[in-house]
Amino acid sequence: MSCFSERVNMQTEEERQKNFFDVCGTCKINCCWDARPPITIEREKTILDYLKTHGIHIDNPFVHAEYTFPRETTDGYCIFYDKTTRKCIVHPVKPETCVAGPITFDINAKTGKIEWYLKMEKICPLAGVMYREKPILEKHFENARREILRLVRQLSPTALKTILRRGEPDTFKIGEENLDSCIIKKLTD
Does any domain span residue 88? Predict the structure, then answer.
């Protein structure tokens, strides 16, 4: 076990996220560009409360279309991405898929399973760290799984179908599990 793995096992969630920030903050790949992470009604309220509480004013931060997502800047970045610090200004309450990254998912309605994927290191250096350090991947997967399952339960059928049409290239499957029939029903009705 590497020193980094031992540190992760003993760290609090806040410390682990800081270490992720260290990797992400030096990355030159723009995962916050053209990302359009889905936002549930509950998460939208939470983000709006966070912005208000912290005195951050952003006019119309969300786009309400087939699904809700953060508005983008004129150059295509998430409205919550600070290009100077390379960090999310709503990090403690950011969208579920942002928390889960670089783990992503797909749903196979025929098998009734959610499939879990990890991005390749060429598009996410953090994924490379996780792949090499299995305890880090396992710990992060617990959080990613919880966040994504909450998301798919709360999204409307239209929103869920729309985000599942969006491709996730350069990933590889790391697992799958059965889904509640109510989630599968959203996709088949």
Answer: yes
